[in-house]
Structures are given as C-alpha cells and as structure tokens.
C-alpha cells in the first residue's frame, strides 16, 4: 500500500510539474542580418580542453586540474608560457560546464601574466583559490532553498532556473552570450562549447558562439568514399555497400550538433548560467529546460549533455577534425579532464548485496551509466580503428588526445593524504584504498566532506604531473 501511495504521489508531482513548466523564449534572428557572432581567425595549432560531467566532483577536479596546467610552463611560439595560455577551446558537459562557466566568467584578462617568478602570479593564485572554493559550495541546498522561497517545489524544470540563479548570484553575475563573445573576441578566454541533449530528437546541442559551420565535418561522406575505394584490400559487395549506406544515411543526422544559430534563434541575451543548468540537468530531478523561438510553434526540450558523451569530447573532436583536414599542416591537442563516475566503482557493493535495487539509492543514474559505458566502449573502438587506417582521421602527429582521469592519480599512502583527510583514513591505509575512496566520491551538486574536496584537488595535481610530459612535448613539437 505504501509503495502504491508513493508511486501516486510521484506521478502527481510529475503531472503538476508539467502544468507549471517554464518556457525560455528567444527572439528569432533578424532577417537578412549578419551573423550574430562574427567568426574569429583560425589558428595553425589548437589546444582544446574537454571537461567531463560529474556534478561538483567534476567541477572541483577541473578547477584543480586547470590550476595545475596553469602552473606548467611550456615553450610556445618562441616564448615561455603557461600551458593554460595555449588553450583555445573548452567543451564541457554537466558539472564540467559549471567549472567551464566559472573559468571563462572570472578568469583574469590576457594582459595579466599567469606565471610569476615563483609559480603562479599573485592575481592567478587568488583566482584559483576562489575557484576551488566556489566549486565546493553546496549548490543542492541553495537550489532547494530557492525552490521553497519562490514556491517552485516539485518542479524540476524550475529547479534548473533556481540553480542558474544561485550561480549568477554567487559568481556568474548574469553574464550573457554576447558578453561571453566579447571576452572571446579580446582573447581573454578560450572559445566555449557547453553541451546538452535535445530530448525531441536525441541530437547533441552546442551552446556556443562558434559558427555552426565549424562543426560541419562531413564524416559520412569521407567514410563512404573510402568504403567505395576500388583499391581496398577487401572490396565491399554491392549488397554490403547498400546496407552500410542506409545505416550511414540514418546516422548522419545524429552526428552533427544543433546550435541556436542553426535553428534561427537570437541568443545574445541568454544567460550563460541557464546554459550551464541545461547542460547539467538530469530529469526528472532537474530540468529539462524548454526553449522556444518567438513566432514559431516548436519547443526544444534540452537537458543533460552527458547522456552519450559524458566527457565533452564529441563536439571538440568534430570541431578539430573540421579544422585539421587530411594533408593539412595544422595540429591539435585535446586534453580531457575526466571525472566521470567509474562505472565499476559500484560493482563491489552489488557483488555482495542480495537487494539489487538498493544500488539506486547511492547511484540513481546507474541505468544511464550502463548505456553510456557501452556507448563509450564502441566509440573508442571506432576511433582507434579509424586512426590506424590513416585515411579518415588525422594521424597521431597531427591530432593527439591526453586524458587526465581522477582515478588515475598514483598515491603512496597515509603521508600522501591532504591534511583534512588524516582523520578519515587509518594510518596503514594502502594506495589502492585511497584510490578506491576517490573513485567512490558521489555525483552530487555538493561536496559531502572537506576531505573529498581536498582529495579531488590533489588527485588533479597528481595526474597533471603524471601526464604533463605528453602535453608539453606535443606543444613544443610545433
């Protein structure tokens, strides 16, 4: 009886939610006007940061990783710089979008030196201190308070707005995409891509000031041309080619992202914070955010950007492939800041639990995680298979990916722990136990303990140190 009542209450809540949905209206693009955001010059060498989802865990680890990258010197275009100064693009999903938004809204201008005589300059030391602290705020509590204050309880769509308003009040200051573009135009920040998912069609949605044409990498045509190559070692039969062609035609619509430019919306006054909340929403808890272009009957329901690609790499890879065509001297480096929840981290608990449904109490997104894990596996297999062919994708000398994953940090033992964690671990704790503790930090929009925050920041510094030679060597090989 209790379970039936609970189901009825949840259903009633969802019905009420639908009755009071909030619509984000956007003006249509002016007819015959020039592009809302003029294209900026391309570069011969590009560095992109892909920042994964994972709530405040991802945001905190990203802040630590960006600080460690800022402290890493590199010779670039004939002068000593910070690795962070070479970054030209940032692509993110979910919690990573929060970290990205803070970075581009609050980062000092390019006139401010990143490195001083002893590591970071004073301005950047202050910036990163505030950055790491802000990412560890209990946003869940603040969002809930705002929901109750404005009578928005039981409305996940409006919770997305509550979170965006909390972020604006605390650090984003209602910055719009027009203001974001001004910072990009001055060269103060990288070009930004926040990723969401269109629930209407399943397509990726890119919140960005970049031209839509920058993502038009014609992967399908290139692959089809290669498959039809008569000099292939094993030519395809006409029947086989017809079957493959049909599948590729159906896949082509999903490969390219939608953008506001592509659908004719004027989003210059859209707040960056709402794009972050859209990217980070996870219905039925938060969102989706519904957009409508004024004068049109169509509604776009956009939510979690990590349903397929929780790393933020898909938009960035598509962009780089478009800008580094076969035979081009251009080169690109993608640094992936990966704090996605390790899928096998919950396996041990399930192995010894005779009530399988209990796993959803601590990991409610596990079903989505299964789909994401398998999708990423096939995506990786496809990527590496095509890289070995040297035809469809650039070779390793022209496009390199370096992954900085929070669970890859190498620990030595108790003395290696941050000071705030000394009471949380036994003196004989093993490196593996520390690594497992880091892996089990949950996906929430809060950091549960000071130790969790400190572990994430130190893990970030460790993985950057472990892999910085790959980053520096590729940049200096220009």
Describe this structure in words.
By secondary structure, the protein is α/β, with parallel strands linked by helices. The protein has a single domain, classed as Cytosolic phospholipase A2 catalytic domain, CATH 3.40.1090. The chain is built from 16 helices and 13 strands. Helix 2 crosses helix 16 (450-476), helix 5 packs across helix 6 and helix 6 (156-172) packs across helix 10 (272-280). It is globular and about 65 Å long.
Structural class: alpha/beta
**Tally of contiguous helical segments:** 16
Reported for the largest beta sheet, the result is: 9 strands, mixed
Number of domains: 1
Span between termini: 68 Å
Summarize the amount of helix as a percent range. 40-55%
CATH class: Alpha Beta
CATH topology: Cytosolic phospholipase A2 catalytic domain
The average pLDDT is: 86
SSE string: HEEHEEEHEEHHHHEEHHHEEHEHHHEHH
Briefly characterize the structure.
This protein is α/β, with parallel strands linked by helices. It has helices at residues 2-19, 55-70, 94-106, 122-135, 139-149, 156-172, 177-186, 219-227, 238-255, 272-280, 313-323, 347-351, 359-362, 366-389, 431-439, 450-476, and strands at 23-26, 45-51, 73-76, 79-82, 89-93, 115-116, 119-120, 191-198, 204-208, 289-293, 299-303, 331-338, 399-405.
């Amino acid at each position: 009886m209790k379970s039936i009542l609970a189901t009825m209450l949840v259903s009633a809540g969802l019905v009420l939610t639908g009755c009071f949905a909030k619509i984000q209206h956007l003006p249509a693009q002016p007819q015959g006007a020039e592009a809302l955001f003029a294209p900026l010059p391309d570069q011969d060498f590009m560095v992109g940061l892909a920042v994964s989802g994972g709530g405040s865990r991802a945001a905190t680890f990203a802040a630590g990783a960006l600080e460690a990258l800022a402290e890493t010197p590199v010779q670039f275009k004939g002068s000593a710089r910070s690795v962070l100064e070479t970054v030209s693009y940032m692509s993110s999903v979910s919690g990573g979008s929060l970290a990205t938004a803070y970075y581009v809204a609050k980062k000092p201008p390019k006139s401010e030196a990143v490195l001083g005589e002893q590591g970071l300059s004073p301005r950047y030391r202050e910036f990163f201190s505030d950055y790491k602290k802000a990412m560890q705020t209990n946003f869940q509590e603040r969002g809930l308070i705002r929901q109750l204050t404005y009578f928005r309880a039981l409305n996940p769509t409006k919770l997305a707005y509550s979170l965006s308003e909390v972020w604006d009040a605390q650090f984003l200051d209602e910055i719009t995409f027009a203001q974001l573009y001004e910072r990009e135009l001055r060269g103060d920040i990288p070009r930004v891509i926040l990723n969401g998912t269109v629930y209407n069609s399943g397509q990726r949605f890119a919140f960005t000031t970049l031209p839509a044409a920058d993502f038009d990498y014609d992967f399908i045509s290139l692959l089809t041309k290669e498959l039809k190559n008569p000099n292939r070692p094993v030519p395809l039969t006409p029947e086989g080619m017809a079957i493959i062609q049909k599948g590729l035609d159906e896949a082509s619509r999903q490969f390219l992202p939608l953008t506001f430019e592509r659908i004719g919306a004027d989003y210059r006054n859209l707040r960056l914070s709402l794009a972050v909340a859209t990217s980070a929403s996870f219905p039925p808890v938060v969102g989706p955010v519904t957009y409508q272009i004024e004068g049109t009957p169509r509604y776009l329901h956009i939510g979690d950007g990590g349903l397929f690609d929780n790393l933020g790499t898909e938009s960035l890879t598509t962009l780089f492939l478009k800008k580094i065509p076969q035979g081009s001297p251009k080169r690109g480096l993608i640094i992936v800041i990966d704090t996605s929840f390790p899928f096998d981290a919950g396996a041990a608990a399930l192995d010894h639990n005779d009530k399988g449904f209990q796993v959803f109490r601590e990991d409610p997104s596990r079903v989505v995680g299964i789909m994401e894990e398998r999708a990423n596996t096939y995506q990786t297999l496809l990527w590496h298979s095509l890289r070995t062919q040297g035809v469809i994708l650039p070779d390793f000398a022209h496009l390199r990916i370096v992954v900085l994953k929070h669970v890859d940090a190498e620990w030595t033992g108790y003395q290696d722990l941050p000071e705030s964690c000394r009471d949380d671990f036994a003196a004989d704790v093993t490196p593996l136990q520390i690594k497992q503790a880091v892996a089990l930090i949950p996906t929430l929009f809060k950091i549960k303990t000071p130790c969790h925050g400190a572990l994430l920041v130190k893990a970030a510094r460790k993985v950057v140190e472990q892999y910085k030679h790959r980053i520096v060597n590729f940049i200096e090989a220009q």
